[in-house]
Protein: Malate dehydrogenase
Amino acid sequence: MARKKIALIGAGNIGGTLAHLAAQKELGDIVLFDIAEGVPQGKALDLSQCGPVEGFDASITGTNDYADIAGADVVIVTAGVPRKPGMSRDDLLGINLKVMKAVGEGLKQYAPDAFVICITNPLDAMVWALREFSGLPHNKVVGMAGVLDSARFSTFLAWEFGVSVRDVNTFVLGGHGDTMVPVVQYSTVNGIPVPDLIKMGLSTQEKIDAIVQRTRSGGGEIVGLLKTGSAFYAPAASAIAMAEAYLNDQKRILPVAAYVDGQYGVDGLYVGVPAMIGAEGIEKVIEIELDAEAKANLQVSVDAVKELLVACKGIDNTLA
Ligand code: A3D
Structure:
């Protein structure tokens, strides 16, 4: 069987980390694409030279030509600009929308059968626009945010309870912004819901509320520390988990920005929900029961995503 082909659009901080992880896991041969001349080629060469040391077999090439992504099985999109301190994700909308148009056209021409994972911010609007520009089926275009936001929530909870991160399972729903919804009700330590752990005296409501808030602003906390860009290790690891779920038909239930049409009272929008990823891409959106507070928060988040789509349509009238 021929090796799978993984195309990475954007060879910046996340793109380079994605290439390294994909090579280490031998997910397939890797093509790094960027508009910056020399950058994808240089990173590809550097990463190729990890092969003998780390012992992986993967061809890694860099390119500025979309033709080289032809036939890709998985495409992960990070092209665009990241946040700087003081910027919200939404401030990136105008510039990254143009980038999504170029990427969408490249996908339509060269990789129409790929499973496409978008990471570019503002995520929920960019994944929607990328789907529109590319014309690919909705089940094959998905956004990465919930896996990362849940990983942040899990990390903070593991620290709070003093337990292994492996035993913490969390869900963060809604848009990837300040209105995201960490769902405490469905977050557990080895099956024990966080509200029960509070009742057992292992934490307090105030501490968990503070963790929810820290999760919501988890990306901004890192931007504030790095000063020159945004998080990239955990975002890359999260997208790789989604790519593996597709390539290996794992049927994983992951929180992702999926196209929702009907569930949760949402019509025709990309928003963070639990969904099953397998060989068909997004195979199912899972509708979990939410308490009144989570429902209200999800609605705020959905409204925020809708506003972004109106802004997108205002900038590019082909999206109307
Ligand atoms: P960065 O290191 O700047 O890399 C972006 C790359 O995109 C650069 O190498 C650019 O040259 C390249 N690029 C720009 N325009 C184009 C184009 N038209 N075609 C191809 N390549 C282009 O950023 P990064 O890797 O740190 O972040 C990438 C994106 O991910 C940003 O929009 C971030 O905001 C976003 N991000 C999202 C999350 C989520 O959880 C959703 C987390 C972290 C970062």
